[in-house]
Structure formats: structure tokens, C-alpha cells
Backbone:
């Protein structure tokens, strides 16, 4: 039994931020009913790569969910949504502000249906403020928040993060906010509206940058792999490849000098005596370190660092990370059987609970796969269900409707 067993989530979100949030809740035991539009469903279903015409992008962040395809522009579709909301604890949506009002599923309306609802809105710029009407995307948020000005090499071209860090960050922020609101609901019986803005969720992460800016007016610049206040705390080049080296305090630095680089004179070198001096002279420090490391391969130095208690590690590509023995031992790669894709691997669950572990219970749903099951749960008869389908209120595709490709396309 998961920690959120018994919690029902009505998921009206799509693409990444909202679905990532609801996947986290589903992994922890919540029942998640994914409400998809009837003309194609979640837009990520149209994003490759594909296996047997099924999107593996959709597959990765929609596990443990049920799917109902519902036309919310119809009165019948809205009625079904309201009926589901009456028995739900949470609604998650990521429409542009104003769309939920036009559909009749906004917070004020849904609060009238179920006063205890926790209603989470995820949007680019939030539900208020001068930019609230604008659409927001991860890339725009990375640029606007200052992140891209800090990423990459100094004086180089602006670079985004290697992953959609704000989309995922918004999903994580929404998930912990929902759980906090649920605790409040258990205490008070009150629901509430949560307003999550993609453009804002990363700002609290800029701790070192905020310290320098608010104290001294320093505007942070790109520092490559170097840390903003510690040195050496960065990528350094060994004979065959780069590796990560982290001397975050004086003791670790001295261990590195004595037992790894075997350069005890660096400890008393005036340019390197303190962390501040090392940071101020980081270019000279980097050259000195790389001159030593160039004599042997990264694996040699990493092993030597480990023996000396100095944090260090390789710079893996994604394949190397997914095959890492430690990640595999901790179930960070799991495999599940999908009715169309077949057996497929996915990223596992990072939190290890001693009492209520998360679980990958089943694969992502086919488009509208659970429509009939969900409609029956709110009292619809076979005749009702057929009528709703005939009138375009609901939709679904069965496994038999998929063309079985002879070769897998990735």
C-alpha cells in the first residue's frame, strides 16, 4: 500500500509539468484518472520516438494512470467531469489562464461541485500578474529567470539546461504543494487553489547567486562547470577524459593535496591557502591540477580520490548512467509490460520508503483505455456509454486498432 493510497486525482494536464506531478502522486499510491481530449489525447502522444505507433515519450511519464477521453466542450462531457470531481481529492490542470473558465472547469466552478477539492493550476506565468495571459514553456522560463545567463562558458553562447529542468521542477513543486494542501485538508476539511508558475519555480534554487546579488549587487555570469563560491569544485581534465572533482571544504582540499595530487606545497601556496583565495585564482588552480592529472586516466584518479575521501566521479553519458551498477542496484531502471509497446524500460522511483514504498504498478494507458470502466463507476449504462461515444463526447482506441509494426521504430 502506497502512502497516498485512497487519494483520487483528476488529471486534466498534458505534455510534461502536470503529468510529471501526477506520475509522482500515482507512484506513491494515488489513483490518477487522466482526462484527455477526444481529438488525439495528450499532445505528448504525438511526440516520438514510437514503438508500434505508441509514443515512448508519453509512456515515460504517464505510468500508473487510467485514461478517459472526454470532450469538455460538450455539456455531457462537463457533467461527467463534475461527477468525477465530486469523488476526487485533487484536480491538476495546466491550461493557459482563462481556458478553464471557458470550459467551465475553473476553480470557482469546481469548488461549488466539491468544496474540499485541492485544485492545482500549472501555467507559464501564474494566474495573476502582468504576464499571466502569456503562454509559457520551459525554454522561455530558463531564459527569463536568468538561468541561461549562468549556464555554459563565460562569454559563450547562452545555453539551456540539458533537460527540461523547469517543466520537471514545476511538476515536483506541484506534487509537494498538493501533499501539503492535502495535510491541511485532513486537519481542516478545507480545499484550496494552488497557483504554480513555470517561470518562478526555479528562482528559489539560485541560493549562491541570490547571496551575492542581494549582498553586493553581483550579477552572476556563466562559470562553465566551476562552482560559484567553492574551488576546486568542477570538471577537470585527466589524461583520457574529464572527471568531476569536489573539494568543498579545507579538510577535503588538504586531503586532495596530500593523498591524491601529492602536492603538499599547495596547502601553503599563498594563492590557494583558503577557499576564497582558491576561488579567486581558479584558473591558475585548474592549470596546476590538470598538469598533475594529465599523467594518468580519470579512472585512476577517481579511485585515488575515493581512497582519500575526496568526492570525485566520472562524467557519464546517458547510456553509461543507465548501466551504472549502483543505479541498477537501487532499482532506478525498471521494466514494465505495455499492451502495444511490449516490454519497455523506464526510470525508477528515487525515494526509498521503509513502510510505504512507491511502486510502478502498470504501464501508461492507451488513449481512452479506461473510459468505459470509469463511466460505469459513475453509473453510466452500456447504452449511455455507446451514446456518448457516438456523439463524440468520449473516445477510445483498443489494442486491436493499432497496426502491429513488423520492425520497431525508435
Residues:
Amino acid at each position: 500500500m502506497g502512502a497516498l493510497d485512497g487519494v483520487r486525482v483528476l488529471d486534466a494536464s498534458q505534455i510534461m509539468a502536470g503529468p510529471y506531478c501526477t506520475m509522482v502522486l500515482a507512484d506513491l499510491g494515488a489513483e490518477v484518472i487522466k482526462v484527455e481530449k477526444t481529438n488525439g489525447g495528450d499532445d505528448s502522444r504525438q511526440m516520438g520516438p514510437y514503438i508500434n505507433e505508441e509514443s515512448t515519450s508519453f509512456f515515460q511519464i504517464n505510468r500508473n494512470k487510467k485514461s478517459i477521453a472526454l470532450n469538455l466542450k460538450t455539456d455531457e462531457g462537463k457533467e461527467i467531469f463534475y461527477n468525477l470531481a465530486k469523488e476526487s481529492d485533487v484536480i491538476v490542470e495546466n491550461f493557459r489562464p482563462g481556458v478553464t473558465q471557458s470550459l467551465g472547469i475553473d476553480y470557482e466552478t469546481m469548488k461549488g461541485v466539491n468544496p474540499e477539492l485541492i485544485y492545482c493550476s500549472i501555467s507559464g506565468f501564474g494566474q495573476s500578474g502582468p504576464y499571466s495571459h502569456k503562454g509559457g514553456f520551459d525554454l522561455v522560463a530558463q531564459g527569463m529567470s536568468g538561468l541561461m545567463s549562468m549556464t555554459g562558458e563565460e562569454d559563450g553562447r547562452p545555453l539551456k539546461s540539458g533537460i527540461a529542468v523547469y517543466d520537471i521542477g514545476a511538476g515536483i513543486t506541484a506534487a509537494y504543494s498538493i501533499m501539503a494542501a492535502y495535510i491541511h485538508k485532513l486537519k481542516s476539511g478545507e480545499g484550496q487553489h494552488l497557483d504554480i508558475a513555470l517561470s518562478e519555480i526555479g528562482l528559489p534554487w539560485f541560493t549562491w547567486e541570490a547571496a551575492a546579488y542581494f549582498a553586493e549587487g553581483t550579477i552572476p555570469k556563466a562559470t562553465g562547470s566551476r562552482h560559484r563560491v567553492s574551488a576546486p569544485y568542477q570538471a577537470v581534465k585527466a589524461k583520457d577524459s574529464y572527471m568531476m572533482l569536489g573539494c568543498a571544504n579545507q579538510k577535503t582540499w588538504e586531503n586532495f593535496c596530500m593523498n591524491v595530487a601529492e602536492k603538499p606545497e599547495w596547502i601553503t601556496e599563498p594563492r590557494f591557502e583558503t577557499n576564497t583565495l582558491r576561488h579567486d585564482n581558479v584558473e591558475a588552480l585548474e592549470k596546476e591540477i590538470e598538469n598533475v592529472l594529465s599523467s594518468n586516466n580519470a579512472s585512476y584518479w577517481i579511485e585515488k580520490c575515493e581512497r582519500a575521501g575526496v568526492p570525485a566521479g566520472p562524467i557519464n553519458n546517458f547510456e553509461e548512467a543507465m548501466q551504472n551498477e549502483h543505479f541498477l542496484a537501487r532499482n532506478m531502471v525498471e521494466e514494465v509490460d505495455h499492451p502495444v509497446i511490449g516490454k519497455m524500460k523506464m526510470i525508477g522511483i528515487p525515494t526509498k520508503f521503509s513502510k510505504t514504498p512507491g511502486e510502478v504498478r502498470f504501464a501508461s494507458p492507451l488513449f481512452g483505455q479506461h473510459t468505459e470502466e470509469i463511466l460505469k463507476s459513475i453509473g453510466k449504462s452500456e447504452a449511455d456509454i455507446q451514446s456518448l461515444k457516438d456523439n463524440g463526447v468520449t473516445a477510445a482506441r483498443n489494442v486491436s486498432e493499432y497496426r502491429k509494426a513488423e520492425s520497431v521504430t525508435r
About this structure: The chain is about 40% helix and 15% strand. The chain has two domains: 8-203+327-401, 233-237+242-314. The chain has a mean pLDDT of 95. Residues 165-188 form the longest helix (24 residues).
